[in-house]
Design brief:
The structure is a homodimer. Chain A is of the alpha/beta class. Chain A has helices at residues 18-27, 49-65, 76-89, 98-108, 120-125, 127-134, 147-152, 159-172, 194-200, 210-225, 233-237, 250-261; strands spanning 7-12, 32-37, 70-73, 94-96, 113-118, 138-143, 182-185, 206-209, 242-246, 268-270. Chain A folds into 2 domains: 7-97 and 212-270, Rossmann fold (3-Layer(aba) Sandwich), CATH 3.40.50.1860; 98-210, Rossmann fold (3-Layer(aba) Sandwich), CATH 3.40.50. Chain A binds chain B through residues 39-43, 46-48, 51, 145-146, 148-150, 152-153, 159-160, 163-164, 167, 248, 275, and chain B through 39-43, 46-48, 51, 145-146, 148-150, 152-153, 159-160, 163-164, 167, 248, 275.
Chain lengths: 275, 275
């Protein structure tokens, strides 16, 4: 009998997408997962649309060829610059991180004013602004280039990070956006800073995490796309099988990745794609 | 009459090498300069030796084909991982940043204990440790991954940067290295932090800047390699001609680069190398 546990492929340029995987594991434990981190070619943020699309399509095909029946583009840059191209090139359904984040922000916001924080590349693409404005939300985008290196240094509850976050958020929640009631985390590194950001943001602000929102969007899509027969109770109870692929050092992926995923990572396989 | 002003090619993965160019312009104004920033493919730090060598050799050939008679590898990672390969592939004399920095540290240090700070990649290569230990210096290498993003954010005299530098330097100048008397800046971004680091480092410490040391090494080599006829007084007085090549956005290069070079950058040309 073929297993009715679906296999979900998650793709990111690096480690950040592991926060999306973490949210998926909590929400959809009755699935198996493949994770592809293109760590040798990161950051995507400084690369051209052409190059990002080519890299992302390569990764999507790699995941498909290893059995992924559903793809999650857990990379803001790849989603912003190349979701259409990846969708056209792939043979399975795809969800990116921007639309689910924007949709969740729209659901939560009462006064229709949202602050989005992300990397310089994501903010520069204005993908979140477009997705939010389509939903009638007034949007301020704020690049926070120091937050990713602070997370990667492991300083997630460090006084320096708090000070940096305070500077960025004071600038973002100013003037016309003083009363914005949603802070949308438009970078998959930021969920690790959620407790700190909750302290630093104005008290009336709700934090919407695009990693979590994406997991919810995937769950909804899966229900529509993979109808019954449902997994048997045994299949449901089985622990998700996880396989990780990284294009750079396996050791570094294991070490850094564990912080993002929240538990140990054992089986990382090195993938050699030409650069 | 052919100009007797030599043309010096400077190569870096990004902007940091502009601090080396700045030092060269001060020390050798009677030369013309080409600068190649491989901004589309940075950072080199996470890439394999093979890839870094291939990229650096491509850049070296590009500079040679545009008239460089002398090459400066103003990139710590490329110097650490691939100087031999670049030297073998190039047709003109080459100087990297590691040996000049180590030599200057050796000249300055009295108690033969040196702290080197750099990126994770540079520290991981142990290129400075080898160069310093060969000269009989006891060496502690300390990775300071937040300093590059802080410099790129423009926070070169910001309280946050001071706090971060204090944390890193306290860790570095501890235990057996409390009395180290040289702080070697093993990253071409760090010269912008020199005033701040001078305040934060223990008072007995001399800062040795590998950008400046490299410019001195180039001046010495040039005297040996390009003997008389010396440039005429007119040629000497002429302002150096500068040409910049960048593989990513010309606009971003201009904007960020000016901070490193200390004056405006006008003529940036985009170079399209395959990734």
């Amino acid at each position: 009998m073929t297993s009715r546990r679906p296999t979900i492929g998650v793709f990111d340029s690096g480690f950040g997408g592991l926060t999306v995987l973490k949210a998926l594991l909590e929400l959809i434990p009755a699935a198996d997962y493949l994770y592809f981190g293109d760590t040798a070619r990161l950051p995507y943020g400084s690369k051209s649309v052409e190059t990002v699309a080519r890299y992302a399509v390569e990764a999507a095909h790699y995941l498909e060829s290893h059995g992924a029946q559903f793809l999650v583009i857990a990379c803001n840059t790849a989603t912003a610059l190349a979701l259409d191209r990846i969708t056209a090139a792939a043979h399975v359904p795809i969800v990116g991180v921007v639309e689910p984040g924007a949709e969740a922000a729209s659901t939560v916001s009462i006064n229709r004013k949202v602050v989005v924080i992300g990397t310089e590349a994501t903010v520069g693409s204005h993908a979140y602004r477009r997705a939010l404005e389509t939903r009638g939300l007034d949007t301020r985008e704020k690049a926070c280039p120091l937050l990713v290196p602070l997370v990667e240094e492991g300083w997630v509850d460090h006084p320096v990070t708090e000070q940096v976050a305070r500077i960025y958020l004071n600038e973002a929640f100013s003037d016309g956006f003083r009363e914005a009631d949603v802070l949308l985390l438009g970078c998959t590194h930021y969920p690790l800073l959620k407790p700190l950001l909750q302290c630093v943001a104005p008290p009336h602000v709700n934090i919407v995490d695009s990693a979590e929102s994406t997991a919810h969007a995937v769950a909804t899509h899966m229900q529509n796309l993979l109808p019954p027969p449902k997994p048997t109770p045994e299949e449901r109870r089985a622990t998700p099988r996880l396989r990780f692929f990284a294009t750079d050092s396996v050791e570094k992926f294991r070490r850094l990745g564990e912080r993002f995923l929240g538990h140990s990572i054992d089986n990382v396989e090195h993938v050699d794609l030409k650069e």
